[in-house]
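Quick start: read one record
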Amino acid sequence: MQLDYLAFHGRYSLASADFDSALNHYIDAKQLIEETGYHLRDAELDLFAAKISQHTKQNLNAKDANYYLQKAKNRIEAIEQWGLMPRWEEYNCLTNHD
């Protein structure tokens, strides 16, 4: 449940141009996933990282949005989490047209 909150509020923060809050939510979500071992959400976290990189035009953890998009796509394909592909396609389209 806490992970859902961090992901939802993080995306809201991005939409509201509150990049510091979005980044903090990303960091907290990443830490929570590492602590709990709940890696089912890894692809979503990578999509979130890509979106932060897209909006801020800065690398996150020395990686750009394309890195996180590719990582997310690999994870989506590996565990067949096809429901995330529309979001991946949207983010990929935005990244490759900036």
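The chain has a mean pLDDT of 92.
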